[in-house]
Amino acid sequence: MNIPYRLIVTGLGALVFSGLLYGYAQAGGGHYYAPVTDTVVQEECGACHMAYAPAMLPARSWQRMMAGLDQHFGDNASLDAATAARVGNYLASHAADAPGQPYRAKLVRSLPESAAPLRITELPGWVNKHRKVSAREWADPAVRSKSNCSACHTTAQRGYYED
Ligand code: HEC
Ligand code: HEC
Predict the structure, then answer these.
(1) Domain ranges in the chain?
(2) Looking at ligand 2, which atom is closest to the CA of residue 148?
(3) Could you give the C-alpha distances from 156 to 17, 55, 64, in angstroms and in order?
């Protein structure tokens, strides 16, 4: 029997390669930040803006944010104690630095351990990724705010930020 080894080897190589690509995209190869899957968090933190991906900020930022929801960027976003506990737990356990995260999100990599920013848009990593966006683009009526991710990233709700 004449087994075409080369075909088998190439086939295996392709399988391993696509597996790697798939794993990379799922784990967050810079473009992918897992969206919120908890329906309560989705409802409570997605009412005024998109529910931001928890892996975009470290747990200490989410803790600080949850402690000041009554004064949340000029809005009152307070929650009852039970809901706040659930939301806070979810955000912290899916944060950029949460234990078990397969990959430390690129956006927070250069953030000092002592810093707990409340804005993703103030992270050095985020500012760096957006350095080529012009003032005119930020001021576009369809954008208005840097926080309005989905204006430019049409697939942000699904976790993909390629552009
Ligand atoms: C009542 C409305 C409201 C609710 C509810 C709300 N937010 Fe916000 N949030 C805002 C406003 C307003 C801003 C500032 C947006 C801007 O600057 O354009 C903001 C900004 C943010 C930002 C910073 C975005 C950036 O610029 O990087 C984060 C993170 C955030 N919210 C998380 C949350 C989380 C987590 C929850 C749920 C616990 C939540 N928000 C619920 C109104 C709300
Ligand atoms: C005005 C349009 C605009 C808005 C609003 C915007 N972005 Fe972006 N973003 C871009 C562009 C353009 C790039 C690509 C920059 C490059 O490749 O040079 C980018 C790149 C990124 C990347 C890097 C993707 C990669 O290639 O690794 C991430 C992550 C990201 N944005 C997240 C966000 C988040 C989160 C928000 C909201 C808090 C946001 N962006 C708001 C335009 C925008």
Answers:
(1) 33-120
(2) 5
(3) 26, 13, 24
CA of 2 to the centre of ligand 2 (A): 53
Name 160's bridge partners: 32
Dig out the tokens for 33 from the structure: 């930040």
Per-residue pLDDT of 64-78, as tens digits, reads 999 999 999 999 999
CB contact at 8 A, 111 and 126? no
Q: Which two tokens stand for residue 136?
A: 């005119």
pLDDT per position as a tens digit, 14-32: 444 443 444 334 444 558 8
How far is the C-alpha of 20 from the C-alpha of 47, rounded, in Å?
36
Grouping H, G, I as helix, E, B as strand and the rest as coil, residue 117 is coil
Amino acid at residue number 156: A
Amino acid residing at 30: G
